Amino acid sequence: MVDLSFSIYDLEYFLLIFVRVSCFVYIAPYFGMNDTPARIRIGISFFTAWLLYETLTPADAVVVDTVMEYAVIVMKEAIAGLLIGFGANICMAVVNFAGSIADMETGLSMATLLDPATKETTSITGVLYQYSFMLMLIASGMYRYLFGALADSFTLIPVNGVVFHADSLLQSMTEFMSDYILIGFRIVLPIFCVILLLNAILGVLAKVSPQLNMFAVGIQLKVLAGLTAMFLTTGMLPGAADFVYQEMKKMVVSFIGGMM
């Protein structure tokens, strides 16, 4: 006969695990997208928390005396889960940055659309890159690493063991901002070089043939050259995704280290 009895301490301990996991799923890449059904996110959070609860020793249950103490622990676990998910999610912003540069160079910066995932107005190339990188995130199994990092965080940072080090977290964000621009330009570098070469050619033609309207001709050539370069460099996206995923791993580890 299955014994489903549990104590109030076990319930409190499970809820603390559930809070950290649910906050991570709420903001993590792919799972935190607005077009992901809420029932799916709740189900993933619940069953992941249940598996972690069965793995962790119940002897580590947190005993509190007042509701206020328990509320403080809940807030600490929620912030810990949000920071771990934020460390992974912020790296996907590099893709939108690269798409904005590509659209600015090709003359498509005015053609924006509403991203159903973020409910924000983004560039066309940014949305294309974002969904391509999300697809590669699932195909490459990167989501397993994210959940593995979340599970390991309970070993490194036990429940009610979160200690926030502001200097370490700030240093992680500062290092990320330096890599943010570098990775973004690496993604869009082929398109940037093609448009730069095209601008040089148009500048020479404008001097050689002043009677030609290079402004009208240049707009069409930039769009054609930009789309052609984007099509020819599609095979380079997996390599660019590796840069983003390596940065994602680095940010998750540094954020966990900043809470130990």
Your description of this structure?
It is found in: Cell membrane; Bacterial flagellum basal body. The chain crosses the membrane at residues 13-32, 78-102, 180-203, 223-245. With 260 residues, the protein is mainly α. The chain has one domain. Helices cover 73% and strands 3% of the residues. It is built from nine helices and two strands, in the order H-H-H-H-E-E-H-H-H-H-H. Strands 1-2 form a two-stranded antiparallel sheet. The two termini are 41 Å apart. The mean pLDDT is 81.
Topology at a glance:
Blueprint: H1 8-27, H2 38-55, H3 67-89, H4 93-106, E1 112-115, E2 120-123, H5 124-139, H6 142-156, H7 166-208, H8 214-232, H9 237-257
Antiparallel strand pairs: 1-2
Helix pairs in contact: 1-2, 1-3, 3-9, 4-5, 4-7, 5-9, 6-9, 7-8, 7-9
Function: Role in flagellar biosynthesis.
Main location: membrane
Pfam family, one: Bac_export_1
- Major sheet: arrangement of strands: 1-2
Distance between the termini: 41 Å
User: Count of helices?
Assistant: 9
Q: Approximately how much beta-strand content do the residues carry?
A: under 5%
How many distinct folded domains?
1
Overall pLDDT confidence? 81
Structural class: mainly alpha
What's the total number of strands? 2
Instruction: Write the element-wise H/E pattern from the N-terminal end onward.
Output: HHHHEEHHHHH
Shape: elongated
Radius of gyration: 24 Å
Give the % helix: over 70%
Largest sheet, if any? 2 strands, antiparallel
Q: Uncertain segments of ≥5 residues (pLDDT<50)? A: none
Features of the shown structure:
cell membrane; 2 strands; elongated; 260 residues; mainly alpha; 9 helices; transmembrane helix; two-stranded antiparallel sheet; FliR
